[in-house]
Amino acid sequence: MKSIQDLGCHLAISIFLLAGSQLYGQVLTLMPSCGKAGDQVCIGGSGWAEPNPLCRYTFAFNGSTIAPDQQDGLYGPPATKFTVPAVAAGTYNVLVQLVLNDANSTLLQQQTASFAVISTLSNPYTPAPANAYNGAPSFLATFDPTNVCDAGPCKNIRFIQVINMTGRLLADHSKTRPLTFAEQGFGQAVKYDADVTPAGWTVDVLVGNSDPYYQFPSPGKSLSGNTSPSTPATMGDQPTRGNSAFPADIDRIILTFQVAVLCVDGDLKGTYLGTLSWTWTQDKGGTPSVSLGGTSRGQPSQTLLDAVTRWNTNHAYTNKFPTPSVQKCM
C-alpha cells in the first residue's frame, strides 16, 4: 500500500503530465552566472512543483554532480550552492532535475541554465584622476557593468558611501582623534552625530534624504545599471573644510570613505556588487588632497554595514534593504 507522501509525488506527476511544464513555469537561477574555478555559485529558482516528500532535486554541471541531492518536501524550490570546478574557460550547462525517490529516479521536471567559466573577472571600475570631479581635489567613481557577467542583470545600480572623520593633534602629530560634526560647525550637527556608530562611521548623506544612497552628481536620479545597452553608474564627491571647521587642537582633518555598489532593482536586487575606498586630507590653511584606495568585487565591510543599519534605525526609511528577488544560498 502506498504512503500518503508517495501518492503525493505520483499525483504531482499526473498533474505535470496533464498540464505540462507551463503549469509551474519553473525558473532556474545562478548567482552569479559566471566565475572562476573555486568560486561559489548560488542555485535558486521559483515556480517549481511542490509535491510531498519522496521527491528530490539533483544538480549537475556538465554532466557531473556538483551538489548533494535536495529533498523537495523540505525546502520547496531548488536552493543550494556549488563550487566552480577546475575546467577550461567556456560556457557550460547546469542541469537541475526534480525526480521521484523511486528505483528509477522518475523525472518530474527539469531546467538548465548556462554558466560561464572565466579566467579573470572583468573590472567594472573606471579609473579617474583624483581631481576629475569639478576640476578640484575630489573623487569620481564609475561602475560600468558592460561585459561584467557577474554584475548583471541589474536594472538600477546605486552607491552607499560612509565616512569616518579624524583630526591630527596640533601638539603631537603622531596622534589623531575622532571629530564630531558639531565641532566642525555643521548645520543640523545633532542629527548627523546621532547617526555615527561607536566605531566612528556614518552614512554620508544629507539630513532629510529619503534613502541612504549617495545622490551626486545627479541628485535624485536613479542610476541605471546593467540594462540594454548597459549604462555606467557614476558618483562624485568634493568635500570642503574652511579654517573655522578646525577645532583648536587640530591642524589636519582626515576624511576616510568607504563606498559600496548596490543593485536595487532587477535579478540581482539586494546584492552588493563591489566596494572601493578613498581618503581626503587637508591641513589648516592648506590645500586639500585626495588619495584613491583599492577596489574590490567582494562584500562591504562590517563597518559599512553597521553604519547603514544605524542610519536605517534612526530614519523613516521603510525599505531597509532591497529584498532579494532570487533565493539566496543556504
Radius of gyration: 25 Å
- The topology string of helices and strands comes to HEEEEEHEEEEEEHEEEEEH
Q: Termini, distance in Å? A: 36 Å
Can you tell me the residue ranges where pLDDT is under 50 for at least 5 consecutive residues? 1-24, 219-227
What oligomerization state is this entry in?
single chain
Structural class: mainly beta
How is the main sheet built?
6 strands, antiparallel
Look at the structure and give the mean pLDDT.
82
Tally of DSSP helical segments: 4
Number of domains: 2
What is the helix fraction of residues, given as a range?
A: 10-25%
Percent of residues in β-strands: 35-45%
Query: Which geometry do the CA atoms define?
Result: elongated
Number of strands: 16
What does this structure look like?
With 330 residues, the protein is mainly β. It has two domains: 114 residues, Sandwich (Immunoglobulin-like); 176 residues, no CATH class. 12% of the residues lie in helices and 37% in strands. It has four helices and 16 strands. The strands form four sheets. Strands 10, 11, 12, 14, 15 and 16 form a six-stranded antiparallel β-sheet that branches. A five-stranded mixed β-sheet has the order 2-8-7-4-5. The protein has a three-stranded antiparallel β-sheet with strand order 1-3-6, with no helix packed on it. The longest helix is centred in the first third of the chain and has 16 residues. It starts with a helix and ends in a 16-residue tail after the last helix. The N terminus is likely disordered.
